[in-house]
């Protein structure tokens, strides 16, 4: 990884469709799920290619809004020789996913079996969807990236909470270690979240739910 002021050569550039929400939508569609995507893209070439890619994957793109935001959401991912990564997100059109966009897809959302979200859209929108889902009895899976503090009113609405080590520390305000991972997961579960999945990079992941903690 480059240090401040440093230029690193011999890199390899690879461009692909992505985003946590988009990746999960495509994966669910490929395994036979009936999937729709709610969000925003810019009226740039990336946005049109994203919608085309969703359609090819069999995903309902009816609720994707196209607007004049500067760019469609983009992530720049640096991966080192040990497969550790660092990510910089340029939200672009993702910042325009407002509660109004959600209202236009209200019936679709309320009739879903499960909603997958992440924090690359405005936090007020995440809270709005969680409230809507709770009232409608729809399960929510939330990936807490990019990391930020999460309100209890959101956590109590989440069926599956996915977070990495850094995000765990941001949310709980405590340093994560092998010795306290169970207690921190229990702390989160006490807020109402039913299933906690902590991703641990090359060490795999740790799952904590009402059955028992499991390390994979």
User: How helical, in percent, are the residues?
Assistant: 25-40%
Number of helices: 8
Strand content: 15-25%
Task: Give the C-alpha Rg.
Answer: 18 Å
Shape: globular
By helix and strand content, what is the structural category? alpha/beta
> What is the element string, with H for helices and E for strands?
HEHEEEHHEHEHEHHEEE
Low-confidence stretches: none
Overall mean pLDDT: 92
Strand order of the largest sheet: 5-6-7-8-9-10
Largest sheet: 6 strands, mixed
Number of strands: 10
**Spatial separation of the terminal alpha carbons:** 28 Å
Give short descriptive properties of this protein.
two-stranded parallel sheet; globular; 216 residues; alpha/beta; 6-stranded mixed beta sheet
Give structural notes.
- With 216 residues, the chain is α/β, with parallel strands linked by helices.
- Helices cover 31% and strands 21% of the residues.
- The strands form 3 sheets. Strands 5-6-7-8-9-10 form a 6-stranded mixed β-sheet, with helices on both faces. Strands 1-2 form a two-stranded parallel sheet.
- Helix 2 links the parallel strand 1 and strand 2 (64-67).
- The model has no long low-confidence stretch (mean pLDDT 92).
């Amino acid at each position: 990884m480059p240090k401040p002021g440093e230029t690193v050569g011999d890199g390899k550039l690879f461009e692909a469709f992505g985003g946590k929400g988009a990746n999960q939508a495509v994966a669910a569609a490929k395994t036979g799920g009936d999937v729709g995507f709610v969000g925003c893209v810019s009226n740039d070439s990336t946005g049109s290619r994203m919608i085309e890619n969703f359609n090819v994957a069999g995903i309902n793109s009816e609720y994707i809004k196209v607007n004049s935001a500067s760019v469609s959401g983009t992530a720049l991912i640096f991966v080192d020789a040990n497969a550790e990564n660092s990510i910089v997100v340029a939200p672009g059109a993702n910042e325009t996913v407002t509660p109004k966009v959600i209202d236009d897809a209200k019936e679709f959302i309320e009739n879903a079996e499960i909603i997958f979200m992440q924090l690359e859209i405005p936090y007020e929108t995440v809270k709005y969807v969680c409230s809507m889902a709770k009232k409608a009895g729809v399960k929510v899976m939330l990936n807490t990236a990019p990391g930020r503090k999460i309100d209890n009113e959101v956590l109590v609405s989440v069926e599956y909470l996915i977070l990495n080590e850094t995000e765990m520390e941001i949310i709980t305000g405590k340093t994560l270690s092998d010795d306290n991972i169970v207690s921190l997961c229990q702390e989160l579960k006490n807020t109402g979240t039913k299933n906690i999945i902590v991703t641990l990079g090359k060490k795999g992941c740790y799952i904590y739910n009402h059955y028992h903690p499991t390390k994979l």
